[in-house]
Design a protein that fits this description.
Length: 260
């Protein structure tokens, strides 16, 4: 929602200067609703600048390949070394954001800026905007590149997610779906429950992936799970009370890129 609002506000000349483009890093495992929304957003009559789609592969397929001993970029899934020990739960180191989001975006930005196979300038000449709203201010991170600066226009305007929704509604724009990998271990119980209730085919898919990665991930000891309880996804109660279930962990996402 925030990234769509940012792009459309730029197209309405409410945030300037006009961007040269927008970039969407596709992990290959987004909800179908996200791809449908992206197709609408890329229509020539919606935005005045292009939306580039970049990718380094399909995260879902790579996970399934990893379950058979192949190479993989680890996701922050949960492990249980001892099946009988409820306290013996750990989290796998997260590499997916770097490899499936940051790296392809950085490569595309460098290409658009004419820096492919060139030494990086020491002074900033690229400004990259992030669709992060005011209540997510803890997610902002400074650029690690001397030639690039990051900017968060929604935070500058102190716009929350609710403000974004009101702005979209005021122009009659459709409500955007949440962008995140279908099987992201950062999902809250409410997010898992919504997939199960509203998108049964996608629910069957994440359950199948959860089963497939249980054992056999190279370098990982013990069993692997997508849910923080370290139990099979299809057996998790997914309580309606977030005080006793899993809450959304996206604000703890340290690179400020997932879902943007």
């Amino acid at each position: 929602m925030q990234s769509t609002t940012l792009a459309l506000m730029a197209a309405q000349d409410e945030i300037g200067p006009m961007p040269d483009c927008a970039i969407f890093a596709d992990t290959g495992w987004e909800p179908q609703a996200v791809y449908d929304h992206l197709s609408w957003l890329r229509s020539p009559h919606v935005l005045l600048f292009p939306v580039h789609i970049v990718s380094t592969g399909n995260l879902r397929d790579d996970l399934l390949g990893a379950s058979r001993g192949g190479r993989w970029a680890s996701i922050p899934a949960y492990t249980r070394g001892n099946a009988d020990d409820r306290d013996d739960i750990g989290m796998i180191r997260r590499q997916c954001t770097t490899e499936y989001k940051i790296a392809p975006i950085r490569k595309k930005v460098r290409a658009l800026a004419g820096l492919t196979r060139k030494r990086s300038p020491r002074e900033p000449f690229v400004e990259q905007w992030m669709g992060i709203s005011f209540e997510e201010i803890t997610r902002i991170k400074m650029s690690r590149e001397a030639w690039q600066v990051n900017r968060w226009p929604l935070i500058e305007k102190r716009m929350t997610r609710r403000d974004c929704l009101r702005w979209l509604e005021s122009y009659g724009y459709p409500r955007p779906p949440k962008s995140s990998c279908l099987g992201c271990p950062f999902h809250s119980d409410a997010a898992w429950r919504a997939i199960r209730k509203d998108h049964p085919e996608e629910w069957e898919d994440v359950v199948a992936v959860d089963r497939a990665i249980r054992r056999g991930l190279r370098g990982i000891r013990g069993e692997v799970f997508l849910h923080r309880s370290a139990t099979p996804l299809e057996t998790v109660p997914l309580t309606a009370c977030e005080k006793t279930g899993q809450t959304d962990l996206f604000l703890d996402e340290c690179d400020g890129v997932c879902g943007v």
